[in-house]
Design goal:
Helices cover 36% and strands 15% of the residues. The protein has 408 residues and is of the alpha/beta class. It has 2 domains: 174 residues, 3-Layer(aba) Sandwich (Rossmann fold), CATH 3.40.50; 207 residues, Phosphoglycerate kinase, N-terminal domain (Rossmann fold), CATH 3.40.50. The chain has a 6-stranded parallel sheet with strand order 5-6-4-1-7-8. A 6-stranded parallel sheet has the order 11-10-9-15-16-17, sandwiched between helices. It is elongated and about 70 Å long. The N terminus is likely disordered.
């Protein structure tokens, strides 16, 4: 198995005693107006702690929500959560680049950490724009002169061309933080590494269009696609089974995505059918609110919602995983948040953990199943915290934030 090096500078290249501006992604669920702790705080704490322990003056940028939405709140609550993960105090100032922010930045001592206010409260942050125009915004021009270096650790936001992500690398020496570095290396592995053995991709979740695009992009690099979720049913529909459409007339999970992707699904089945493994049974909730399963070939018409792949399918998928050298996961095989319908997702994750393979688990909430069902994250090579950026990486699309780091 061969690897290619990253093409941007990392924390290993950073000179000592710097005042560093660090972009994180602390975007979190908000309940009762307060941010909820999650994996992102723990991951980013590694970068923040390393910088503070090295004696740098560390100033943090992050966003939360979008203007007009309920989760668009101040970052004041994020500072204490981050501090608990870093093991150091994290100061907060309710300003981003005004006088209060500049005064707080200039007063920092070595090893101290400061979180600035929500970047999306700045008019210059949104909407997306080219790096050159973002570098000329008042936001960037006001902050940049107070720093020696810029570190982007926000891989999960790197598909956005916002001022805090693409503007600063044009006016400051730019580096990748540890999250950015590890996410980039793992999520581009399917394109940049060569594997001697079997490469498997597990695709599921509710956003069928995303995973279908991934299948189309990497059909020549993947030996086996194991399908579940919405995409799995749509492929079964294309194969002639009476599934893959909405039972509830008020729902819109299947029919729209079928219309959008039917041609590509049928083309993939025809051209790459030998690489695509479909479910042989599906699970649903019966009249007693229990898990029930039915063979795909025995379905006369779809009159229930299927919420997971069946047990036989889960074991077949596990067998493929056990024989693989590399496994990439994009999306859950069922509604794993409900234990009754966690069988497919958990069995595949267990098989990965049992197997000496290179593994990347990502795509929205899928990685949550690892902690939810008592699996050990250490048994996986990489558990991604990225959603949209992970998809773009898998489909070979450039990420604006990454491209900005690569510029000299």
């Amino acid at each position: 198995m061969s690897t290619s090096p990253t093409s941007f500078r990392t924390l290993d290249d950073l000179d000592p005693d710097q005042r560093v501006l660090v972009r994180l992604d602390l975007n979190s669920p908000i309940e009762g107006g307060e941010p909820q702790d999650n994996r992102r705080f723990d991951r980013h704490a590694e970068t923040v702690r390393e910088l503070a322990d090295a004696g740098h003056r560390v100033v943090l940028l992050a966003h939360q929500g979008r203007p007009g939405r309920d989760d668009f709140v101040s970052l004041s609550g994020h500072a204490s959560i981050l501090a608990s993960h870093v093991g150091r105090d994290v100061g907060f100032v309710p300003d981003t680049y005004g006088d209060a922010a500049i005064e707080a930045i200039e007063s920092l001592d070595t090893g101290e950490i400061l979180l600035l206010e929500n970047t999306r409260m700045c008019e210059d942050e949104l909407p997306e724009g080219d790096p050159e125009s973002k570098a000329e915004t008042e936001f960037v021009r006001a902050l940049a002169p107070h720093f020696d270096a810029y570190v982007n650790d926000a891989y999960s936001a790197a598909h956005r061309s916002h001022a805090s992500l693409v503007g600063f690398p044009l006016v400051l020496p730019a580096y990748a933080g540890r999250v950015m570095q590890t996410e980039y290396e793992a999520n581009t592995a399917i394109a940049e590494r060569s594997f001697d053995g079997r490469v498997t991709m597990v695709v599921g979740g509710t956003k069928a269009t995303d995973v279908i695009d991934v299948m189309d992009a990497f059909g020549d690099r993947v030996d086996d696609f194991l399908l579940g979720g919405i995409a799995g049913e749509l492929f079964l529909r294309a194969a002639g089974h009476p599934v893959g459409f909405d039972v509830d007339p008020d729902a819109d999970l299947f029919d729209t995505q079928w219309e959008q992707n039917r041609g590509l699904i049928e083309e993939l089945l025809e051209e790459r059918g030998s690489q695509i493994t479909l479910a042989v049974d599906l699970a649903y909730e019966d009249d007693e609110s229990e898990r029930a399963e039915v063979d795909v070939d025995a379905i006369g018409e779809k009159d229930v919602s299927f919420l997971d792949v069946g047990g036989d399918t889960a074991e077949r998928y596990a067998e493929v995983v056990h024989e693989s050298e590399a496994v990439f996961v994009k999306g859950a095989l069922g509604v794993f948040e409900d234990e009754r319908f966690s069988v497919g997702t958990v069995r595949v994750l267990e098989a990965i953990a049992e197997t000496d393979c290179f593994s990347v688990v990502g795509g929205g909430d899928t990685s949550r199943a690892i902690g939810l069902y008592g699996l050990d994250e250490a048994d996986f090579d990489h558990v991604s915290i990225a959603g949209g950026a992970y998809i773009r990486a898998l489909t070979g699309q450039p990420l604006a934030g990454v491209e900005a780091l690569k510029r000299e």
